[in-house]
């Protein structure tokens, strides 16, 4: 039995919505401007070393951060609960990015090297990461909406218990994908070839291509306890 074309229900994966960022007339910012619960608006922060800086609960609004060192693994800047909105972060370095329970809204991060991203229980809305190198990204329990990882290299991303909607990875590579008990919607995984996937049963709401289906067959079978002979 055939149906008229206009009655056929077709499903498409919604693309992430782009952030809106307008940075004009920025004021030069200095190390002394950064502190707990500080409100930084319209600032240009560049060539700063934030090792051991306490920036908990701080707000970065419509600001630019470039060539900033977010600290060494032993002495990272503390960004717990910090909020970035309408901001751009580029060409920065963070051996350990410590920002649990923080938020990124209408924010772009580019050309940045992150060793361990400790950003669990955070909120990301309309965020683009481009040309970033990330060893481990802990997004457990986070809420991601309209997030794009563009041309990034990520060794491991942990989305356990996360709520993820309209997220894509164009041109990116991910080595290990964890998504135990995650809730996914419009998550575009096409092009990724992780060598390990944890939480296959939580991939409902994700989109993969035919080539991935063949490549992941063994991973899916192992995760679901299926023996292939």
From TrEMBL:
SUPFAM superfamilies per the record? Pentapeptide repeat-like
Q: Can you tell which superkingdom this protein's organism belongs to?
A: Bacteria
- Database matches in Gene3D superfamilies: E3 ubiquitin-protein ligase SopA
InterPro entries (alphabetical): 5peptide_repeat
Q: What is this protein called?
A: Pentapeptide repeat-containing protein
